[in-house]
Design brief:
The protein is of the alpha/beta class. It folds into three domains: 84 residues, Orthogonal Bundle (Arc Repressor Mutant, subunit A), CATH 1.10.10; 136 residues, Rossmann fold (3-Layer(aba) Sandwich); 172 residues, Rossmann fold. It is 37% helix and 14% strand. Helix 2 crosses helix 3. It is globular, with a radius of gyration of 25 Å. The chain starts with 22 loop residues before the first helix and ends with a helix.
Amino acid sequence: MEPLVKCPVNAYELGSMPAPSSRTDAVVSTIRKLIADHADDPSWTLPSERSLAAELAVGRVTVRRALARLTTEGLLDIRQGARSRLRARAASGPLTGSVVLIHRTLLAHLSRPVPKGYASWLRPELQSRFHAAGLPCELRHLDDLADDGIANLCDQRPGLIVLTYDISTTPQGTELAEAAAAHGIAVIAVAESPTLGCAYTFSHDHHSGAEAITTALIERGCRRILPLWRFPHPTPWLQARETGYQTAMHAAGLKALTPVRTRALPADNSGDRALFDEAVRGIAAMLPEHLCCDRPVDAIMLATDAHAAQLAAALRLFGRDPNEDIIIAGYDDTWTWQRARMFEPQGPLLTVDRCEATVADAVVRLAQARLDHGPPAEPQHTVMPGKVVTVNPRHFTVPRKDPWGELDNHVATTPAQ
């Protein structure tokens, strides 16, 4: 066991720093400065959690949160022994040859298990695969790009910058991609559409996915298939879904119906019965003209599996049996995780697996190639196909998994700062 080395934390008392937005932010800034000041001393180690709390006059919960954030950023390594030891790892110098993965996951959610199909699943998966491929990978939070963060990151000259779904659509993501390109730093973005012209982008093929699931419905005998989007406003990926749907309907000689859009409705996966009922009523309000008519629809396509239980409950209000009278088609292959299943067991009979693991593999392969050979001559965009998944109806009786329950209990019982 290597002894912890005491260091003059008092030299960086919070009172001498600019007022941050919270005590945790202040501690993060203080520790980050300590690490930067000792970057040239490989023997230096960070004081214990207890020592930091005492020296900085804050609670250990605040210090623990700050250390967790710095660990996810790659500034610290946690070593387990008789008791935890924290060793500072210099990360303020050049990052040549390293991959910097930008994310904006909330600190409390970093350990949250996420099923495939959710964009947030890609961050820990990419990080794991980069390490498995022997590529140094450092996490940076979106907040680190504020003020001079983008310029500072580019000055560190990372070998490659990777943006995940939730970053590539932000103004900071666009600004970072443009600044990195100006510095000759390659950028890979996983995005819903090729919105970053200066980055090599990967996105899911929403057109082919919607075309494939529409074709699968037609092969089951469905003829009046209604796209129902629980989103008030159009998005590029939904527009791609609509063209894929129209392509399949026209190929079969069937009339493509005008997609229905609901108003803004409560969160998909809250597990709150009142919010679930409100969402059910909001969906039901859009259905009378498609169900109470001479030629009712026989299938409904959704933007995501998260809306399937809500739709099933809405169909029951009209006396329709979900997946018997009207087939439900979802997307993302995440229905088994939805908390709404505690209120309505039925889900989508067909869904689409977006094959995020394939995307992750493609990103890592490209990253390796770019680090070995430099950026491509011109940015390129690659669409990655998914696959239609048929759900066995017996699976609707399988107990629901809840990867979020443990986290929610932890957050609920964590003392406030």
